[in-house]
Design goal:
321 residues; mainly beta; Porin; twelve-stranded antiparallel β-barrel; 1 helix; 54% strand; globular
């Protein structure tokens, strides 16, 4: 994203992208008589986490992000379904992510993110008794390149790269699609555009799209491809107290995930479409950047019986060198 865009656009971009990624993965996909839960956690990686532009022509930005999600509602197609239709009962996950970005020059940049997760999984066994499994581990490392030279102001850009299979995918008590890592190498391609809606760019809009697909897999599990379209508005209220910027944000994100495939997958109980919406807040104090967000699914269709969440939370703290 454009390190060389003018200040109004840079502010809009940070707020916009900060809260695109502040939406948590809200779904886990599970079959009625087996373990299946493709949570679609790629939704973490759209927004400010994937691109954190700085105020100069080049430089370094770092950030840490926390998210929490409770998947407790059994869902089928577009509505709530009886809990008895799903052997899984609850998936509670806390996500911790660290990331860094370096803008090489006005046109090119690189970024990397490494997540870690702590997951509690409750399900029923063949006797109908509740069982609980817990795991903590790193997730899949994401490395992206950025090109922002399509226009002089950098308001349009391209993202490209890979997600690497560094994440844990063999924890006891978890099926392949409830594991923290996918075990797959995934190619990622995306783009963005942003612009102002008034003279000083205090009111701005942004759109972003991204697609990721597995290009190498392990142990007969092929995670479903995912596509995202993100759009939102941000309004800069200006300075107040210690803050150099206070900007509320409203955002919508559409996510489509194909069914998982392979001998260790559950294609009949994975795959979904959903729309998430919610407000956020972008705060700046010196070189610190704080993004917070709460988001709600306003539409979701899932294949088979899957666990979903009714509210999503996230916060990210960054520093611009």
């Amino acid at each position: 994203m454009p390190a060389h865009a003018h200040p109004g656009q840079r502010h809009a971009l940070r707020a916009a992208y900060g809260f695109a990624c502040l939406l948590l993965a809200a779904l886990a996909l599970t079959p009625s008589a087996a373990l299946a839960c493709a949570c679609g956690c790629g939704v973490f990686d759209v927004g400010a986490s994937t691109v954190f532009p700085n105020d100069g022509d080049h430089g370094v930005a770092v950030w840490t992000r926390f998210g929490s999600i409770d998947q407790t509602r059994n869902w089928s197609a577009t509505r709530s379904a009886p809990v008895e239709n799903n052997s899984d009962r609850k998936i509670r996950t806390q996500f911790y992510t660290v990331g860094a970005q370096y803008m090489i020059d006005n046109n090119w940049g690189v970024m990397a993110e490494l997540p870690m997760a702590h997951r509690n999984f409750t399900s029923t066994n063949d006797d109908g008794n509740l069982t609980r499994s817990v795991t903590t581990g790193i997730g899949d490392l994401m490395i992206l390149g950025m090109y922002t030279g399509f226009s002089d102001d950098g308001s349009t850009g391209l993202l490209f790269g890979f997600s690497l299979p560094t994440g844990q995918f063999n924890a006891n008590g978890f099926d392949r699609d409830t594991q923290i890592g996918t075990g797959a190498t995934q190619a990622i391609l995306g783009g963005y555009h942003l612009g102002g809606l008034n003279a000083d760019n205090s009111l701005a809009y942004y759109v972003q799209a991204r697609y990721q697909v597995a290009v190498a897999i392990q142990d007969h599990y092929h995670p479903g491809s995912e596509a995202f379209v993100v759009g939102g508005l941000t309004y800069n209220l200006g300075e107040w107290g210690p803050f150099s910027r206070i900007a509320p944000v409203v955002q919508a994100i559409y996510q489509h995930r194909e069914s998982d495939q392979g001998a260790n997958a559950y294609p009949g109980d994975t795959g979904f479409n959903r729309v998430l919406m919610g407000p956020g807040l972008d705060l700046r104090a010196g070189r610190f950047r704080l993004f917070t967000d709460v988001s709600f699914p306003v539409h979701q269709w899932v294949r088979g019986n899957q666990l979903v969440s009714s509210v999503l939370y996230k916060a990210q703290l960054g520093y611009l060198f």
